């Protein structure tokens, strides 16, 4: 009788541990769109309304670029100024570290918006290699916006953002990088039925109304 009870408790404990581990596995939404499409603004509203954790690949890289003692700071700075995509190993390491630290602080914080990633095939392959069994990608939230609207928004933002890449020369390079490298990734996920598209050319509140309807539907 006692042996049977121990076996039952052991199975129950294993089941609980499994369910906890499953719940803690990061649930990820990739957020993609051109520079200035409003990804950061909409992510902030999603965080406020739904409790996701927002991780911006660009923000993480910019923070690492200025972090005292960073071995990658100068390299990241050079890539960003040239409008090029930073090597995938650096970006994934920063994303993985940020997710792990978030879950360690609060085990219920396992839903993440990863903004501005994956930006090219190399990013995607790196993610699949390192994170495929460590996180579940639910879908890609794609903010669709014309190149001209994106450029106009970034130039306006550049008046107060202090970002070194919010200028016309860098923006033209960033738009080309987006069209050549990121759009094919969006199209790849689209063929898999994993893209949810929102018209981002409108005002913030109009866009967010569509985002809310989409997230409510997805659950």
Describe the structure.
With 219 residues, the protein is α/β, with parallel strands linked by helices. It has helices at 2-24, 39-50, 57-66, 73-81, 88-105, 121-131, 147-161, 168-191, 204-218; strands at residues 27-33, 53-56, 111-115, 136-144, 195-199. A five-stranded parallel beta sheet has the order 2-3-1-4-5, with helices on both faces. Helix 2 (39-50) crosses helix 9 (204-218), helix 3 packs across helix 5 and helix 7 (147-161) packs across helix 8. The longest helix is centred in the C-terminal third of the chain and has 24 residues, at 168-191.
DSSP strand tally: 5
Low-pLDDT runs: 12-22
Helix fraction bin: 55-70%
Overall pLDDT metric: 87
Biggest sheet strand order reads 2-3-1-4-5
**What form results from the Cα inertia axes?**
globular
How far the N terminus sits from the C terminus, by CA atoms, comes to 44 Å
Radius of gyration: 20 Å
Taking the sheet with the most strands, its summary is: 5 strands, parallel
**Into which percentage range does the β-strand content fall?**
5-15%
Give the topology, please.
Layout: H1 2-24, E1 27-33, H2 39-50, E2 53-56, H3 57-66, H4 73-81, H5 88-105, E3 111-115, H6 121-131, E4 136-144, H7 147-161, H8 168-191, E5 195-199, H9 204-218
Parallel strand pairs: 1-3, 1-4, 2-3, 4-5
Helix pairs in contact: 2-9, 3-4, 3-5, 5-6, 7-8
């Amino acid at each position: 009788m006692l042996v049977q009870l121990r076996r039952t408790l052991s199975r129950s404990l294993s089941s609980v541990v499994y369910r906890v581990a499953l719940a803690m596995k990061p649930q990820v939404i990739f957020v993609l769109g051109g520079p200035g499409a409003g990804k950061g603004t909409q992510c902030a509203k999603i965080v406020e309304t739904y409790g996701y954790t927002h991780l911006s690949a660009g923000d993480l890289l910019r923070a690492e670029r200025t972090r005292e003692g960073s071995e990658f700071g100068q390299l990241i700075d050079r890539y960003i100024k040239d409008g090029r995509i930073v090597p995938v190993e650096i970006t994934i390491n920063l994303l993985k570290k940020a997710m792990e630290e978030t879950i360690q602080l609060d085990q219920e914080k396992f839903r993440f918006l990863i903004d501005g990633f994956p930006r090219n095939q190399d990013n995607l392959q790196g993610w699949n290699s390192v994170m495929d069994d460590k996180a579940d990608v639910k879908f890609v939230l794609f903010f669709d916006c014309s190149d001209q609207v994106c450029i106009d928004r970034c130039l306006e933002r550049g008046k107060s953002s202090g970002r070194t890449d919010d200028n016309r020369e860098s923006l033209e390079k960033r738009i080309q990088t987006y069209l050549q490298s990121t759009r094919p990734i969006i199209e790849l996920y689209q063929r898999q039925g994993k893209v949810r598209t929102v018209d981002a050319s409108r005002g913030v509140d109009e866009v967010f109304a569509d985002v809310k309807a989409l997230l409510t539907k997805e659950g």
